[in-house]
Amino acid sequence: MYVAVMGYGTVGSGVAALLRKNHELIRKKSRQESLELRYILDLRTFPGDENESLVTNDFNLILNDSEVRIVVETMGGLHPAFEFVSACLAAGKSVVTSNKELVAAKGMELLRIAAENNANFMFEASVGGGIPVLTPIIQCLAANEISEVAGILNGTTNYILTKMFDEGAGFESALAEAQRLGYAERDPSADVDGIDACRKICILADLCFGREVAPDSFYVEGIRNITETDVEYAKALGGVIKLVASAEKKNGGENVAVCVSPAFIRNGSQLANVSDVFNAVLVRGDAVGDTVFYGRGAGKMPTASAVMADVIDCAVSMGETKPYGWSEAPDGYVLPDDEFTSRFFVRAACGADKVKEVFGSVQQVSFEGAPQGETAFVTELTDKASLKKSLADLGEIRSVIRVTDY
Amino acid sequence: MYVAVMGYGTVGSGVAALLRKNHELIRKKSRQESLELRYILDLRTFPGDENESLVTNDFNLILNDSEVRIVVETMGGLHPAFEFVSACLAAGKSVVTSNKELVAAKGMELLRIAAENNANFMFEASVGGGIPVLTPIIQCLAANEISEVAGILNGTTNYILTKMFDEGAGFESALAEAQRLGYAERDPSADVDGIDACRKICILADLCFGREVAPDSFYVEGIRNITETDVEYAKALGGVIKLVASAEKKNGGENVAVCVSPAFIRNGSQLANVSDVFNAVLVRGDAVGDTVFYGRGAGKMPTASAVMADVIDCAVSMGETKPYGWSEAPDGYVLPDDEFTSRFFVRAACGADKVKEVFGSVQQVSFEGAPQGETAFVTELTDKASLKKSLADLGEIRSVIRVTDY
Description:
Chain A is α/β, with parallel strands linked by helices.
């Protein structure tokens, strides 16, 4: 059996390297007499690369080679990835991708094309890098009604927040360090503004609850506004601030509340100890309770590990489409932001009396050296519409950060 | 399709309850028109129980009913579980078990019988309760050479150690509390002496490395000897003491070093934050790096969650045996204890000079109120044979606890 890789960047070259390194093990587990890389699609050339001879810029070579039964898509972006992947699936080839943008936007459609052509479309690597999470959710937690899925899904922002917590760095300097180390792009917005985490929580919600969640249908906030002062307050509260992406079933499954935003997590939670570029995903099931999957959420070899697991799965399942149970959602499935319910940490430029007048007796937070002229506190459980109304009565608001119960 | 449950104790009744609660979801994911519980094998009767009418004490009823395609074994113990399970497999029925004693001792043999009869033998629930761990290892990390697997695999001892750390309780009073809450048996030895963790690390090693590790072939030490003083030293060292079961490939896979013993874990490790009855398993792969699976390692519904996932898998895979790659090991595969290598925390009734004379400049540990007349320190990496020799020169030894690098 032959495999093609489309896109010879970090992940694509990792896939080729891993197939070479653990070739015998991978071939055996694929239950194939041979499993070889035949083409690498890329517009660039790679003189001197060990796979130089496999590189082509002609997609049709892959599409029309009937011996290529599995295609790995690691190009990234929506176009031409979507066109290439749909063409491969329509030709009955199975496709494995690490491209979260593609899966979040077009996953349901590509799964349909795969099913119509007796092929598989698999994307374990699109969420949590090397961490096994999608297969465990679909297969190992299959007997559970899942009520919530949440996670630290972006390594770049987690690295930055870890720096801010451990070294007291400000956002800008932590970002600069992340860029220097190659953890953040020169244009870091996809990471720091929460776009990457947004795509991943969509995929998780799609699979956990079986209904499509569109990436533009809920509130997404990145970490640009988190300050050193917020960090100090979080420490005083006994926890950390993480960029948390979450999706929770509401109204018996009729709705889902989805959110990407900075969030307070108490120390002692399995998610609080997730540092640097590591990721973790928490899944809450009615039988299993809380279970957490932790590991490297990005990087060449960890991501290749997840891609190759799917390649093996495709090889073993050849000719039989695995059902993902991901279907269209009715209008209004995703709750509007105003109805999002949580406890919130708030810093307001007013006195404690004013806070008590508006919010009643709430938990106040302080630390030595806290800014003068403000009151910091944690609200009771409230929806955002009510919160906004109450905050309008307090005057200048310096921070609003949700407080999780994980 | 019909299912039978053998053993209507905690786990067996959980399986029946979960099948009832999430019946439609489980049936759909099993891709069956019907999926019903037909028999419950137990010597006891259960007057008034919702499944009373299904209870039988006649194993042959199950064995000879050709419509029963999947049998769940939740009886525990080796006999008659082994005889019943082999008979079911020999009859072409798939078997799912939560019985770690059975799997650790007879897993390879039962997998062989399953394969010969085109059936499946599955045992996700035998390690880590509800936590998805065996399937992720086999399937999601399939492209990795796994070098090490380690974990906190016993909830009872972890509850006791958490009590000792958080509340300063002694071992005996923490054990009594665990017994009062039903976390520990009246005879707690299987848990506190490490026997349960021993069986589980065998199963993990069998699957991670593909070669059989016998439960009596390596060093197993429980937590009875951990004192309040050890706890204080661990805190001073910046970590916790957990009952850690681990298996590490040595000499390029020719050998494996396996151990169950109390171990020091630094704060900040994903394993340090695993509290109370929770479990966690760390798997170290060459591509994925470290990945950790966390959740409820025991209990009625979490364990039922893992059992039912296997039942669904058996239903979907009917007629096709899943390979586990678990084969016999050559003699001498498991390293003798003398060759086990680690850093060790030691408390010796001697002065610091004597320690320096024997061990060179090692890291010393102390805390306010530490016992007089002893020196506590952490050795460099050493094998146990050398350690024993050096310790003999120090005089009375009060504690030896290995120090992990997870």
